[in-house]
Each structure stands twice: as structure tokens, then as C-alpha cells.
What we know:
It comes from Pedobacter ginsengisoli. The chain has five helices and two strands, in the order ββααααα.
Amino acid sequence: MAIFPFIILKNKSLKVDKVLINHERIHFRQQLELLILPFYFLYLLMYLINLIRYRNHYLAYFNIPFEKEAYHFDNDLSYLAHRKAFAWINFTGKKR
């Protein structure tokens, strides 16, 4: 979990998981471009809207545009070097 400026892991062994760390760093970038607090507001709002829409926690979570971008690019360890600002907007409206 990324709560700027910290990454919170279930256990220390996950520190070496480059894909997981990249996923959370993508969230850091999203948080920074939205000035942190608005990110959390939008994240929660999108989750609640999705929960009403899909009536399923997993579908609600995986269809948040912030998560869709992070999961789509978490294997691309160079993604943040060329990521455009507000790239998560490209993931709105696309069901995962």
C-alpha cells in the first residue's frame, strides 16, 4: 500500500519484489500529481461508485483507474521514466 511518502508491506520479504514496488511508485506519482489528498478522495469515490456499479469488492477495486494504470504498467520498470502526467485518465471507462 502506498501512502505518500511510505510504502507499507505485509512483510519485509516483499521489499525485493520489484514489480510490487514499481506498482506502488506509480501510485506515488498519481498522488503527487493530484497533490496527495485529492488522490485519496477520488480513489475512495471511484471505489464506492464501482462498488455500487459492480456489487463486488474485487471488481470495484480493479476498476479504479489508478489501479488499472498501476497494474497495467507494474511490470514495466522503466514506465515512470516516460509516463505522462495524469496517465490514469486514459484508464477511465475501460472495464478490466
